[in-house]
User: What shape does this take?
Amino acid sequence: MFVMTLFTGFSSATHGQPSEAMDQTNTVDHPKHSQIAPKRVVTLFQGATDNAVALGLKPVGVVESWTEQPMYHYLRPYLEGVHYLGLETQPDLESIAWLNPDLIVGERSRHQLISPLLSRIAPTVIADQLYDFKALLKLMGQAAGREHKADELLACWQVRVEDFRMKMASRLGERWPQKVSVIRFRGASARIYYGGFARSVLDELGFTRPESQRQSGWGINLTSQESIPAMDAEAIFVFMVESNPSVMETYRTWTRHPLWQQLEAARSKQIYKVNPVTWNMGGGYLAANNLLDELYAHYSLEPLNQAQECCTC
Amino acid sequence: MSNTAIVLRTRSERLTLRLSRHTLFVVAALGTALLGSAFVSLCLGSHSTSPANVFQALVSPHESDIALIVREIRLPRVLLAILVGAALGVAGLVLQGLVRNPLASPDVIGITSGASAAAVFLLTIGGAAQGSPLIPVVAIAGAFAVALTILTVAWIKHATPGQLILVGIGIASAMGALITLMIVTSPDTTAMNAYLWLTGSLYAAQWGDVLGLLPWVAVFLPLALSRARHLDIMAMGDDMATSLGSALNLNRLVLLLAAVALAGSAVAFAGGLSFIGLVAPHMARNLSRSGSAGLILIAAMVGALMLLLADIIGRIGFAPRDLPAGVFVACIGAPYFVYQLHRLRR
Assistant: This one.
C-alpha cells in the first residue's frame, strides 16, 4: 500500500529533520564522480536494492533474494529486466564489471573482501550495517546525487513513526510502551532477536523488550524447547520461511508445547505471525514501511492517509 | 621406462636432482596441460571472451577494454588455483612419504583442520573480517600448532607412523567439533562466511592473495625438493635409512616443516580445501614410478591442474552463482578413489 504512494511524487516540502552527521567510517570512493548523478547502479545486498527502488533508482544489477527467488515479490514490479548477479555473499564480479556500473553499493560484513576489486570497477560505497536502512538511505542518496529525495523519505518516515507512537499510546493506554519479543523459527531451532532489522524498527517505534532481552548482539539461537519461556513478552512477533517444511515442523512442535501455551502472550492471544521478508530479509526503507503497515493493521490503528503523510513533512 | 636420466647437480654436489626421461616427459605434458587450462580459464567467464582479446589484455592492457576483467578478476584467481593446488599436492606427497602411509594427507591428519579452526575462531570472535591479512597468519599458526601437537605425542610415546596418523585423525575430529561449535554459536553472517571459507573457495582471489602465498611456495617447495631423496631412503625403513647415512630426525623435521608450511599457507589463502593433498600424490604415482623428486614435481602439477579445473567448473558451470572449487575437487577425487580400488582388486 505504502509502496504505491512512494512514486506518486512528493511535494518538495521543507523538513525539520535533524541532520545527523554522516557516519565517517562509510567509504565513498572516487568522490570526483559524485557530481554526475549515477545512472547505472548495482546493489549487492537486499537492503540496498530496496533502498535504491525507494530512491527511484532502478538498479541495473542486483543480487538474488534469500526467498521468493530471484527477487522478493514486493520489489519485483520495480525490477523488470534487471540483471541478477548471484548471491549476496558471493556476487559475480565479472558480471558486475560487464554491466559497466557507475555506482556499486555493498555492505561491510559481506563485501569488505571484494571492495578493492569493486572500487576498481566503479565508485563503490560500503555500508556499515546490513539493517540500518536510514543510514544506508542517506549514504545512497549522497552517492547517487539524491540527497534531497533521501531526506524527504526520511522525513516521511519520521511522520509515520510519530503518528504510530501517538495512536499506540492512545490505543493501549497504560499498556504502552508494550514489551515485545521478535522470534524466528528455523529448521530445528528458534531465535530470539535482540538486534537486527525488525528489532531496530520496533525500538524506534517505541516498543520495549523484556528484561532478559536487554542485551547487545544479534540475539540467541534456542535449540531446546525448555528455553521457550525466554521468549515471553506482552506480545510476540513470529516469522519464518513458510515454504520450508523443516521450519514449519519446528514451528508446529514448538507451538504445541505446553510451555508455549503457558506464555503470557499466548494466553492473552498476543502472538502475531508476520512476513519474514518484511520483518527480516528486505532490510530497506520499503520493507520498514511495510512493517509499519502490518503493525497498523495488527493493532487496528487508523492509517495515515497519503495526503497527511506527505503534506505534513 | 627409459633408464636414461637427466641429473641436475650443484657444483659441490650437495643438491642433486635426478629425473628420468619418462618423468621429464610427464612433467612436460602436465606443464602443457596446465598452461592450456590456465589460458582457457582466462578466456571463460560470465561472458566468454575471445582468446585474441584475452591475449591482448595480457600483453598490452592499455589498448584492451577487458583488461580489468582478465588481469584483475580472472588472472589472480587462475594463479592462486595453481599455487594452492601445487602446495597441497606436494604437502600430501611429502606427508605420505614421511609416515609411510598412502592415506596420510594434510586434511586427514588434521593440519588443514588446525588451520581452519584457527581461522574460523578468528572470524567468529570478530577478531577479523573476511579478507583480513590476519587470517592467513593465524591459519598457518593453527597448522603448525597441530603439527607440533602430533610431533610431541610422537616424541613422548615413540609412536610409529601408523599411530601418528591415528593421533592426527583424532586431532582432526576434535578440530572439526570445535569448528561446528563455533559456527553454531555465531550469528548468520559470520557463520555463512565461515562456511564459505571452510569449503575452500577461490572466489574474489586478488593479487594480494597471490603475492601472499607465493613466498611460501617459492621457499618450501624447493626445500621439499632438495630433501626428496631422503624420502626415498626413508621408504626403506628407519634402520636402513640410518645405515645409509641419512640424518633421519633432522630430515624428517625439515620435510615435515615444508609439508606443514605448504598445506597451512594454501589453506590460509584458499580455505579448507580437502582431497587434493590426498589424491594428487596417488595420481602422480600412477603417472610415474620415478623417485620422490620427480613425484614432487608431478604431484605439484597434478594438484594445480585439479584445482584449476575444479575452479573453472565452479566458476562457469553455475553462473552467476560462484560455487566453491572445493565441491568439485571432491567430485573429481571420489570417483578417482573408486577407480583406484577397482585397479587394486584386479
About this structure: Residues 1-34 of chain A have pLDDT under 50 and may be disordered. Residues 147-172 of chain A form the longest helix (26 residues). The domain at 2-153 of chain A is CATH 3.40.50.1980 (Rossmann fold).
